[in-house]
Amino acid sequence: MFTVLPALRELLPRGGLARGSVVTVPDSGLLGLAVVAGASADGAWCAIAGIPETGLVAGAVLGLDLDRTLLVPDLGRPAAGQGGGAGWPQVVASLLDGCELVLVRPPARPSAQVRQRLEATLRRARGVLVVAGEWPAAQVRLRVTAQGWTGLGDGFGRLRACCAEVVADGRGEAALAKRRWLWLPAQDGTVAVADPAQIPFGIPGEEPDTSHGGLRAVSGG
């Protein structure tokens, strides 16, 4: 079992990342980095592949150990008639053999055969594959279903922090969905549990609470 940041523990079965499991984060961003940051801070080797816009400074604030993180920005462009960089599964398999956690955005929708091959590698290596996208039958799926930024007034101000509702579900122990409000990020760049009484905007279906300088936006889940 790999350690996760304290803010994520209540969302995950047994409070961590099970070895040999696949976790999906469809809208990766900071949440994807947060998933691997706890284990990285504990000394695990990590890889980030196919996500060239990854914010390494933000990851370091979360605890990502940059000295133990491998970066593969480009997994290949789509090949004619193949629907994606043809060699990307082998790259990911190699990363799984060398790193304990791999955060990847596949350049194409993986076929059942590709998924089975990578899952076999994952089980043998006893790591964790975090997919920025969809992966049928993943053990855990984390989604941001609503979010809003603080710091903006009526045409003025600066974005300071984002409060987001994160839903976790999946298979087996993760079958029962769990919801938590998190600061993603908080004003200091970290990820923290949000006190419901301090959420600076209304729940879905309500008007925004502008008295706190909040701005809410809802994303489907």
Short structural description:
The protein has 221 residues and is α/β, with parallel strands linked by helices.
Overview of the structural elements:
The chain has four helices and ten strands; from the N terminus they run E-H-E-H-E-H-E-H-E-E-E-E-E-E. The chain has 221 residues and is of the alpha/beta class. Strands 1, 2, 3, 4, 5, 6, 7, 8, 9 and 10 form a ten-stranded mixed sheet that branches. Residues 78-85 and 203-221 have low confidence and may be disordered.
What are the key terms here?
single chain; 221 residues; Rossmann fold; ten-stranded mixed sheet; 4 helices; 10 strands; 27% strand; disordered C terminus
